[in-house]
Design brief:
The chain is 27% helix and 33% strand. The protein is an alpha+beta fold.
């Protein structure tokens, strides 16, 4: 069977989405079901069938989602309503839309990797006073800094049992 000529193919668009909080690992299949539920509950079955969304790739804290050309706006609105995937709280932030997957992958490579910053020192005033880079004290507990972007600081409680994720600002750490 020969491939369809370009004039008969469906035109698709790809949306690049950043998953927040940084470091959240999600299953592509579960994310597909979550997005499908969001599109269906917001727009109904008819529009959801026209959008024909699919999760193409999930890598480096980003997700690439495919849809038909002309339905990017509806999909983007539905993506903004997603607040959790299974029991994991998350937010999907739209970064870009494109006609090719490769251009979105280049955009992912161009962004800085999501890691704890070595050059910045975020410390709290409780406990030991000044912590090592990548660590902080808050509410008499020790936390690892997962992501630091300007005033936003995402931290995870140190330990192996019942580790909690917090989303703080620099002023929260200074006031504690």
């Amino acid at each position: 069977m020969s491939p369809r000529p370009p004039t008969l193919r469906e035109n698709r668009r790809y949306i690049l989405v950043r998953v927040e909080p940084a470091g959240t690992t999600i299953d592509q299949k579960e994310l597909y079901y979550t997005i499908s539920d969001a599109v269906t509950s917001l727009w109904g079955d008819t529009v959801a069938g026209m959008i024909t969304q699919a999760v193409v790739a999930a890598e480096n804290g980003h997700v690439i989602i495919r849809c038909l050309r002309g339905t990017e706006r509806e999909l983007a609105i539905a993506l903004s309503t997603v607040t959790a995937c299974r029991d994991i709280r998350l937010a999907l932030r739209i970064v870009a839309a494109s006609g090719t997957i490769e251009s979105l992958r280049e955009r992912i490579r161009a962004e800085k990797p999501v890691t704890a910053p070595d050059s910045e020192r975020v410390t709290g005033s409780t406990g030991a006073g000044s912590a090592e880079p990548g660590e902080c004290d808050f509410a008499e507990k020790s936390f690892l800094i997962m992501y630091c972007n300007g005033q936003k600081v995402d931290v995870i409680e140190k330990g192996f049992k019942n580790a909690h994720r917090l989303f703080l600002t620099r002023s929260d750490l200074e006031n504690s």
